[in-house]
Prior knowledge:
mainly alpha, two-stranded antiparallel sheet, binds zinc ion, single chain
Amino acid sequence: MGRFKDEMIEAPDFTEEDMVIEIAGEPKTRARPLKHCAECGMEYRPSANNNRFCSNQHRKDYNNREALRGAQLLRVAYHHRRLASGSTPEERKDSGAYLSAMSRLLDGWIREDMREGRKPPIRPADL
Length: 127
Ligand SMILES: [Zn+2]
């Protein structure tokens, strides 16, 4: 026993930082925080900071639906506004029908999105 006494070395002072164990295979960069997919609502880890979807398929589904809805809304809104400045009472009455149709479309989409667990579309930045 006595012969080891001279070989004993004093333990260095450890800080809390020294005590962190690095697990093999873990990325050195900090992982991005989890997000909820704008299409399905499922939690996922984004591959880029501006990523909003859990998969390419959900990005396509979201963008296709938004494009389709936008086209439908454009047609209804356009004729609503065109007839609102019409010269006859019939034209102005038809304008009101288009406005009602616009509300029905939007209400249906809101219900559908809630049912499917989708987030609302991004709000326009300049309104
Ligand atoms: Zn998704």
